[in-house]
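Quick one:
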Amino acid sequence: MIPALILAAGESSRMGRDKALLEFRGKTFLEHIVATLSEAGLERAVVVLGHHADEIRRAVNLRSVEIVVNQEYRLGQTSSLQAGLRAVDQDQTDAIVLCLVDHPAVSAEVVRKLVAAYQQSSALVVVPIYQGRRGHPVVISRALFKELLSLDPQQGANTVIHKYRDAMQSVEVQDPGILIDIDDPQSYRRMTS
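Output:
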């Protein structure tokens, strides 16, 4: 099984409000990502919340997903990844599709393509590429879970991913949405204008 892991625990300090609750195509970022993953055929999704977890739960319909609350979200994104991995790290999990809440514009087709590439290759990491640039989401093999779980929260997951770049598979996609990263009001305005 390949579940999705959606990281939505951060403080959104540069944005000034919770990215999970920003609107995109008539839904919140978080609802949009959950719907995309469901459309892509993923049977299980785990959402990691932290900052304003209760407000997000009240504002967003999350009945179709599992929720993990990372009480240590202030330690950074790696702590949220680790909280999510602990929730999915079961014998039947082959890999995860790692999604970030500030990348809401990815299509279901991209997710399907990444999962298919992983299933065919069993690469340690599968990343989408658009016009020569890497984006999100990424598929991460179970083989890397232990190493990711042992990272210091101050270290980024890229520490592990770059270590295995020779075992990484790149998948060309025709979706610029993999590069759209909404970190601040300016990038949000650009996406919605």
